[in-house]
Amino acid sequence: MQRAVRALLGSRWPLLGMAGALAAVVVAIIVVATGGSLAVAALTLLAGLTLVGLVVVGASAREAEQRTRKTEKQLKALTSAVETVATSVQAVAERQADPTGGPLAAIIGAQRLDAAVRHDELVALHEELRADLHATLTERQLAELSALANLYAMLGADDEVPAFGGFAASPRTVLRLASLVRRLPSDALIVECGSGSSTVWLALACRRAGKGRVVALEHHERYAALTREALARHGLADVAEVREAPLEPVTVGGEKHDWYAAPQWTDLRGIDLLFVDGPPGSAGPRSRYPAFPLLATALDDGAVVALDDAQRQDEADIAADWLAEPVDSVRLADVDTVGRTRFFTASR
């Protein structure tokens, strides 16, 4: 009934209610002043108080109704946003399920998409989360976003660069590697085990510094092609090359591994920066161990060696063995850890 009356009177009903209450008070005073019945005066005052109560209750109800409408509107917006995100996630999942890569391959460039690498990505993420148990996600995100902004500011990429994420080297790692390029000799040789977004950024760093060249060893034919396409988009074919190097059996330090085919790296000499980001763990336990024993003699004195995914147990064991086992008088010294990448220097 109150709502019907309020609809009839419109927004003027609170004012009319207060006016009625005031009139009731005036009437009660007049009744008492003229010697009228006290009972009538009391009833009149009671009617006035009732009107005041109705005005207060009505105002509170109206405010509550407005809050309810606002909340419903916000819930509808949130529901719509959730549905949009769910649709996007489903679309990404469908694209990832495409065995040919589909449009997703063109977007992420040289990222590793096969099932074995996805498994490695999940294992790496698990190990990273466990190692960074006391670090907040926000802090890591800010650090990576800051590094990515620095990369674009330093190197000025003018075309699409393969996306970071998953098992690719992180922006913090690539920023450190790109910064090191400026300190390398004029004829610097940079060798990368594995190819992808880091290959493009290292080539951009060489072009900006006006020195050095990059050689990436890649066992997966498709990823090699994707990285070459990314390099071509930036006009970097004269600065960087990707060599297809199928994995072949090799015995190093009494251990059997599948590592890059020898004809693709035996000619490399005078390496100033070695970035070990492959082969993936799916190639076998301690799959990256052969990098230092096999390339030690090709390292220049003072060369920098970087081992990615150092938070994983296999890579931690590899780093310990590298530090403890000089190869042909070449010894590694621990320098620093940036994100998930451990840096060493080589000396003779």
From TrEMBL:
Assigned keywords, A-Z: Membrane, Methyltransferase, Transferase, Transmembrane, Transmembrane helix
Pfam families: Methyltransf_24 (PF13578)
Transmembrane segments: 12-33, 39-61
The keyword Transferase is assigned to this record: yes
Domain of life, source organism: Bacteria
GO molecular function: methyltransferase activity
One record GO biological process: methylation
Gene3D superfamilies in the cross-refs: Vaccinia Virus protein VP39
Protein's recorded name: Predicted O-methyltransferase YrrM
Organism: Jiangella alba
